[in-house]
Design a protein that fits this description.
five-stranded antiparallel beta sheet, single chain, 10 strands, 260 residues
């Protein structure tokens, strides 16, 4: 499914893991709308589930956008609604901390946007190069950014999993965004931190380069399970394929004023 000159092939999967007794992750795949989401809930049984499911439920009504700005506006409006629902649930439970990390990939014609909050991640494999598009909202990342600790120290930092942002825990959704232009052959990977705790970046890149999207998701989840899967694990893989030329409408250059 896709619009403009690209068609999108998607794989997705989630698993409770080896240690946890329930899954607080939720995901959404809507190629027709150009939206893919992974949300990792926090707050314990029912609370974390509620938060991640609220995000997915609200965003699932996004429909078909008319433009890239329209898509982003629709997304943020629904995310704001989900944020409010989570805050209300927290108040109903006596002020308990409830929330969810979020990563979202939005695409419209030749443009993409990544929107995130927390430590779930989006990666991009392009022309053989694999890079993390998002930057973790974590205490350890802030220490790295400031130069207070080294990469090696960060690997073993005792508060490594302490996040500094999540949906539902502040006055409004606190997200970061990055934007770009798509290329044929791009492969995006969205995941909760249950994957990155057990699988190295170069291993992910190798799997993405050698597997179809669904097979890649299955393989990455199986690797995580084989290594102990201390957390829930959720993976979405989106491959951007060139649409056959005879079905591409028009050759107008990309108008950035109409972009994200």
């Amino acid at each position: 499914m896709g619009t403009g000159q690209f068609i999108y092939e998607t794989g997705a999967g989630t698993d409770t893991g080896v240690v946890r007794d329930h899954n607080e992750d939720s995901y959404l795949s809507k190629p027709d709308s150009g939206v893919w989401v992974v949300a990792d809930g926090m707050g314990g049984h029912e609370a974390g589930d509620f938060a991640s499911q609220a995000i997915v439920e609200k965003i699932s009504s996004i429909g078909r956008p008319a433009s890239a700005p329209d898509l982003q506006a629709r997304f943020m409006e629904r995310l704001t609604r989900a944020h409010g629902v989570i805050v209300e649930q927290s108040q109903a439970l006596g002020g308990a901390t409830i929330g969810a990390t979020l990563v979202a990939l939005l695409v419209h014609e030749e443009l993409f946007a990544c929107i995130w909050s927390g430590d779930s991640r989006i990666y991009l494999l392009r022309d053989g190069q694999y890079r993390q598009v998002t930057t973790d909202h974590t205490e350890v990342q802030e220490l790295l950014n400031s130069g207070a600790i080294t990469e090696e120290q960060a690997e073993h930092w005792p508060r490594k999993n302490v996040i500094t942002r999540a949906i539902g825990v502040s006055s409004s959704p606190n997200t970061d965004e990055t934007f770009g232009s798509l290329q044929a052959g791009d492969v995006f990977l969205l995941c909760s931190d249950g994957l990155t705790e057990h699988v190295e970046d170069h291993e992910m890149a190798s799997v993405l380069a050698s597997h179809e999207p669904q097979a890649a998701c299955d393989a990455l989840i199986q690797t995580t399970l084989s290594r102990g899967a201390r957390d829930n694990v959720t993976v979405i893989v989106v491959r951007c394929n060139a649409r056959p030329q005879d079905t591409v409408a028009g050759d107008d250059p990309l108008d950035w004023t109409q972009g994200f």
